Amino acid sequence: MLQLLAKHLREIHRVTNASERLILNNLATGRTVIPPGPCPVPGCLPHVVHVDKHLKGHKDLTQAGIERRRARAKRDAAMASLERLRASNPQPPMVSRLDLQLEDPGEGPSQPQECRSCRDLGKKNRQLEAQVAVLEARVRRYKRKLQRKPPPTSSTRPQQPQPTSSSEEEEPTRPQQPQPPSSSSASSSSSSSSPEEPTRPQPPQQQQQQKQSEKLSTKRRLTFAEEKNPLNKKQKGLLRPIAPYFRGRSRGSKLKDVLLGTSLATLITPPKHSRVTSGRTSLVTRELRKLHKLHRDLGRTVLGHQALVNQGKGQKLIAREDLARCQAFSSIKDE
Fold first, then answer.
1. Spans of all domains in the chain
2. Global model pTM greater than 0.70
3. Is 202 strand, coil or helix?
4. pLDDT per residue as tens digits for the range 287-306
5. Which of 84, 92, 194, 318 has the fewest Cβ atoms within 10 Å of its own Cβ atom?
6. E strand intervals along 69-165
């Protein structure tokens, strides 16, 4: 911004006319006096003495709107002063051509129209951006719903509605094969059709599944459970010493149909948050194996050991008949 505008106009632009220089200086510094006339706001008073004060009383306008209309009124007043000065054929002649630029056809009225069209386009652009944001949020929400939806099972597939000649029955089957939306129309169509998708099986289907599961035998359910929860090497090693107790005709054999993979493994295997190290766990497992081996050896040889001990004792002792015969012989010799 120039501090000495009058000097700049006189020395640089060669504006020698004092009246012209005063009008341009007041227009640039904002000191142009608005003459009495109609209010710049359309539909307001046709004649106002103090236009500047009158504009401050418009409560329906913002501060920016008031400043814009005040600047427009001051510019119109300055252009009118330049036109009157040019019409008087001043000496020295005028240098500026601001008043002549507005008289050219198509220049003055085109600027407000272009600004208005730009504002309208900007407003439409913002509205479209808001609509696009809403549609994108809706598409993301429906995508999450499709991801959470469980895959269709074999039992529910044959009971789905078969397509017929009518187009209404084909609509609920389309969302079962989701495709990425190619445009906003595709996203809106997917959003409108996805709420109609069946998210849960029908109650009759659940009843049929329960009946089928009840008909399965215990052994078959156990085999299914073993397949679902296989044992690792460590669990198999821990269960191997206990397996003999669940065989044969003993009371323990009554538990042979019980699945050991889940119940016993959860008791033996330490949880993840346990502070017991793997070395201590292996020591405990080793001691348990020793105790089991000792118990197994005692169970196998206890009867044989008892028979051998009794046999040894019987060999060391003298039979009653022999003892009675010896006593009889000794008494005869004494006589």
1. 5-104, 113-145
2. no
3. coil
4. 888 887 776 666 556 666 77
5. 318
6. none
Degrees, nearest 5: CA angle 45-51-52: 140
Contact between 13 and 53 (Cβ < 8 Å) = no
- Count the residues in the chain: 335
Q: Is the dihedral of CA 35, 40, 43, 44 positive or negative?
A: negative
With CA atoms as reference, report the closest residue to 243 among 253, 234, 231: 253
What backbone torsions phi and psi does residue 135 show, to the nearest 5 degrees? -65, -40
| Angle at 60 (CA atoms; ends 121, 114), nearest 5 degrees | 25
CB 269 within 8 A of CB 282: no
Q: Which two tokens stand for residue 87?
A: 């019409």
Question: How far apart are the C-alpha atoms of 156 and 198, rounded to whole Å?
Answer: 11
User: In this structure, which amino acid lies at residue 332?
Assistant: I
Is residue 51 within 8 Å of residue 66, measured between CB atoms? no
- Helix, coil or strand: residue 257: coil
Over residues 88-125, the pLDDT tens digits come to 888 888 888 887 765 544 444 444 445 667 878 888 88
Side chain identity at residue 330, one-letter code? S
